[in-house]
């Protein structure tokens, strides 16, 4: 019987993301990921097929959520209403992992192979949504169009959401640097340190807000306004 390894999957995910950001995806090996996580390579391959899949391990759960939400949409709901409900449900779940999503996206953006992998995963999500719509009695063309539109909205909203997180972090770093300089100047003049300043965090929008705005934009475009 194998040794119990608590949260092995989560530890591997965190270790991989740290190493990808530190060294780059190409220069990180499975052995290094396992070592950073305090686990073995054998354990790694029990959870992931390869080092790329560490970044896409949540795809199956996301697909299940999207399909389940489409299936449970009220019977009178239009295809786009069902898709919107599904994308909003996914956004609500992902909101809790904004920092992880931002860091993960930075790794993917720096590697062509990973970008291609992400497009394949998104296409699979779109196909699953279309299948769920067809099971609701939606015709082939309408199901495909609604699903692809939903994935397009998801991509646009996700990019805006992660860019917001990046901008917030940069602003916080700049404010912290300015605060340190100000405190050092006050200490030099008064012979004592000043109080730590606070970075304003107000005005942040969550992922669902970006999704709603993107769907509204899609509706405006299709309506010709």
UniProtKB/TrEMBL annotation:
Q: Which residues form the HTH tetR-type domain?
A: 6-66
Domain of life assignment: Bacteria
Alphabetically list the UniProt keywords: DNA-binding, Transcription, Transcription regulation
What the entry lists under Pfam families is as follows: TetR_C_14 (PF17754), TetR_N (PF00440)
Stretches with biased composition (Low complexity): 165-178, 191-204
Q: Which residues lie within the region annotated Disordered? A: 165-206
Organism expressing this protein natively: Sphaerisporangium corydalis
Which residues fall under the DNA-binding region feature?
A: 29-48
Do you know which InterPro entries this protein is assigned to?
Answer: Homeodomain-like_sf (IPR009057), HTH-type_TetR-like_transc_reg (IPR050109), HTH_TetR (IPR001647), MftR_C (IPR041347)
Question: Which residue intervals are annotated with compositional bias (Basic and acidic residues) in the record?
Answer: 180-189
Name assigned to this protein: TetR/AcrR family transcriptional regulator
